[in-house]
Structure of Polyisoprenoid diphosphate/phosphate phosphohydrolase PLPP6:
Amino acid sequence: MPSPRVTRAANTGSANPNTKFEFMTLLTNRINASEPNSPRHRASDSPVHRKDSFSSGATSSQQQPLPEEDCMKLNPSFLGIAMSSLLAVDLWLTKKMGVCAKDGSSWGTARPMMKLIEISGHGIPWIAGTLYCLYKSDSSAGREVNLNLLFALLLDLILVGIVKGIVKRRRPTHNRMDMFATFSVDKYSFPSGHATRAAMVSRFMLKHLVLAVPVRILVMLWAILVCMSRVMLGRHNVSDVAFGFFMGHMQYSLIEYLWLSPYTLPLLFRM
Ligand SMILES: CC(C)=CCC/C(C)=C/CC/C(C)=C/COP(=O)(O)O
């Protein structure tokens, strides 16, 4: 939509380049605001002067279009609007779905059950359980699968910790930080470590364990429940969980690619 000044310029019969020039003025203002010492930051470049030049006839040097790379900077503002809208939907959904965030919340009585689901997706029971199964395995196939699951769980902790440390997104304001056994990066919420683990472990189990159909369905339901409980408990924003779920799937693919073969096992145990 043209700015009022553009319309005025058009009404006074200014030449076409003015329209483009006015559009770029907004951009130049932005550049000037971010680079106060830049050569462009001059009084003659102020909107007031620009406006004057419209009525008095701008010089050809003032009418020159900005370099293309500057014009391209307009695109991020559209991307910015899209991102802000997505973020607004994310925050709104997060707030709406945080029904077990507090004891007094609308589903507050379900909070203890949600916390049990939270523990079922926690790193400690999974790592401890896998170590126990690895110790108890009496077949090379069992040892191979358990070792790779352990590898996957440790890699997950590292990758999630790295992303949380880079993104540093705070947990939702309605979250009560009463989580069992956390690392320091767990004060951040993007991505959800429970969601990455649930997605990765469920894919791992469906691929590497021989399970009856009802159990396979239960595994999938468990992964979905763990993800939903993160938002319902108020621990995470919806986008943290959605990205975590996606990241968990990617991590599983990485584990398949890096799969430790039975031949690497004796080498590892000898170290
Ligand atoms: C053996 C070993 C190093 C275990 C550490 C397990 C541990 C403390 C994992 C942290 C799990 C956790 C609380 C993740 C946070 O999940 P979010 O879904 O809240 O991001």
Q: What stands out?
A: Confidence is low (pLDDT under 50) at residues 1-61. Residues 99-270 form one domain.
